Amino acid sequence: MDANIKKLFPFTKPYQSHITWNVIYNILYALFSTISMLTLFPVLQVLFGKTEKVLAQPVYAGIGSIKEYVIDYLNYKISSLSAGESTEIVLLFVVAMVITTFFIKNLFNYLASYHIMHLKNGVLKDLRQSMYDKIIELPISYYSEKRKGDMMARMLGDVNEVQNSFFSILELVVKEPLTIIFALGMMFAISTKLTLFVLIFMPISGYIISKLAKNLRAQSLEAQKESGSLISVVEETLGGLKVIKSYNAEPSFKSRFNDSVTRLLNLTNSIGSRNNLATPLSEFLGVTTIAILLFYGGLLVLNDKTLDGASFIVYLTLAFNILTPAKAISKASYSVKNGLAAAERVFEVLDVKNEITSKENAIQKNTFESDITIKNINFKYEDENVLKNFSLQVKKGQTVALVGQSGSGKSTIANLLTRFYDVNEGTIAIDGTNIQDLDLQSLRGLMGLVTQDSILFNDTIKANISLGKLNATDDEIIEALKIANAYEFVKDLPKGIHTNIGDSGNKLSGGQKQRLSIARAVLKNPPIMILDEATSALDTESEKFVQIALENMMQNRTSIVIAHRLSTIQKADVIVVMQKGKIVEQGNHEELIALNGVYNKLVTLQSFE
């Protein structure tokens, strides 16, 4: 059995009762499919006047003689009716019997479909939930190598494909095979010769269909990857529309999209051609079998006289009854191939091991007492170390600024403190406890992060700010906005804090977005604040507003400020100057200026900007 099918089993556990009922109703459907065809036999017997007269009620003599008992009982009933009633009543009785059995067969079909629908939709919901949980839990490092569009394609498209394709397996192993088995059983009962003749042709048909299905899984996998690339192009286009337009890059992006969509077209056409061929091919092979049956069966009826006309017509309907499930099996086996390819992509994400998690019995820590100690840490994203034997102590209440050129490792410190990444060597400790021993949620609960990019969501100002304190009152939110120097523009908005700020907060200016990010951190009220280039993307006027907001926020707090603009960190208790992952200078503003080294050079350069 395919490994991905095994991985799906845990998702079906909550829906075991639906699987059980689906199987039961499918068995009953398969049984009544055959019975409904057999009820045509008495109709034909009445029409041809071939009903055998049975005047005494037959006695049931056990399972071995059930066929004879059923035939004798039907003949007895028809004989009883014929004796006292007109032919119309007899015909009405046998027609009513046909209608009843077909109704029961279709009722069981509906009930089986009802239960498989609940199973499919339930598993779809649980798979999506597991995918989303995994997407949120995986570390930031995972997404530095993956396209967002591809993740979206896996979560939406591939999970759907698993739902649509995989559960045809239930039909594949229960409903259709049993329909074939019951029909074949009755066909053997009617004519062993004819049935053996049919069985010679079935493996030949199966072999031809399986040859066509070859390579379908590999092609499906390729198509699903291309679908991920397509969504990525759309997602990147929407995210970078301003840049695309300002650089007149529309033709280039149209070309990228066109190339991707053409590749997808070719793949889906190729897969579709094979899928579409499944039904007509299996039908053609089936009809060929029936045609040969007509010839051979006709000889048995007309020449050998070993088969009567009514039995032969019923036999043919049973043979046709095999065709539909055989077609369904060939079609389902094709869609299972697509499902296997989709499941491979879904479980590729679900099976990723999250390296950054809380240890078992991790320490809960809700207060910050003395210091943060970074000791002899080495860290690399890929091959080259970004931080080399780096050590730093940040005491409670201090504002420590990290400065240096781009690529010196400043933002990496923020990533390591929040455990977005883990150090390769060395330790980071809070109050003497290694952060890897702390519960991840309680560690991040101690910290507020304001990044260079103001990450806001398509929701109200209130919802964006209360992210770290969901039960915050309106008054608390307004107070946080005042500290962040943001209430002066929020109060003038149409609905105040209940105003929707649009996708990524695009209804606001850069400075306004950044002040809302600061308000979010203020409301969370953590003891440690990390400001990662919080003002570098702003114009001078916005920077002044944000700078006041930052100073308000940093009062009586431990702050680590990563700064590009040195004007924003002159009041810091300690300024750490970094170069290529190492500390080259350390001290306050005056001490570093007096050193006349790297810091002084940076200040001089920026004063001319």
Automatic annotation (TrEMBL):
Protein topology in the membrane: Multi-pass membrane protein
The residue ranges crossing the membrane are 23-48, 89-108, 180-209, 284-303, 309-329
Give GO cellular component annotations, separated by semicolons: plasma membrane
Q: Name one GO molecular function term.
A: ABC-type oligopeptide transporter activity
- Source species of the chain: Flavobacterium omnivorum
SMART domains hit by this protein: AAA
Report domain ABC transmembrane type-1 positions: 70-338
Q: Does the keyword Lipid metabolism apply?
A: no
Q: What is this protein called?
A: ATP-binding cassette, subfamily B, MsbA
- A Pfam match is ABC_membrane
* Domain of life from the UniProt record: Bacteria
Keyword ATP-binding recorded? yes
Record localization = Cell membrane
Record's keyword terms, sorted: ATP-binding, Membrane, Nucleotide-binding, Transmembrane, Transmembrane helix
Domain ABC transporter positions: 372-605
